[in-house]
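To whoever is on call:

I kicked off a structure prediction for a single chain this morning and the downstream step that reads the tokens threw a length-mismatch warning. I double-checked the sequence; it's 250 residues and nothing unusual in it as far as I can see. Pasting both halves so you can look.
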Amino acid sequence: MSVSAEVWLSIWQARLKDRATKANFNYGRAAANGGGVKRVKVQPGLATARVSMTYYGSHGPERATVILPILPDALWDELTALLREDGTLLARLLTGTLPDELEHRCVAVGLSLLPTPEQVKVKCEYDGPDYFCKHVVGLCYKLGQMVAADLFVALHLRGRSRQQLLAPFGLAEAEPPTTPLPGDFAAFWHLDATTLPSPARLAPLDAPPQPLATMGNPPFWRGRESLVVRVTPTYQRVSDIAMRLLIDED
């Protein structure tokens, strides 16, 4: 079963309780929920923040740090190739679900895409290293909330930012059209060819359709899976047929 960011958050918080005392967990959670975790900085293998205990004394803010090993480049290359082979995997990732296929590839070499508290090293300028103090728990709890909102935060911690991971699929940055489209959608089919930018090259679709991946599900969608996951295989088949026709025409 693929793991959604929300499911992982509950697992993360449960394991965090096992690493910290009840008091430190409660103080850290209060700090994260009460705005006491500030200036969170995430980069490959490292996350830092300034944490104030708004419900515990008056000291702070203290610098808390979480350190974990990044995945090797060779493994990231394997994961990218896997995403390219099956566009539905990337579509699921974009909609906040970690596909089992990616996680299994990492587990096979003794690693994991989503970090667990057992894998991380921590330190705090107030309480010292290797101790899940209230400041460290505050940062960890905040990181869990950030991952629940954006799964790519965890992937960034493991070594690849959203832009780095999506760049091979042309999804890192969406460039606006050079000329705004008319508000009258009925006029779309009558646009002059010079109105829209011409692609620099023709290539088969190897990623979910960018507009759907960006906009998410429409209000009318009632499917069990997201719309982009359902339609990506069809887009890929149409893309393959179109490319064969173009090659035959040449």
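Update from on-call: the warning came from a stale cache, not from the record. Cleared it. Sanity check on the structure: The chain has two domains: 3-169, 201-249.
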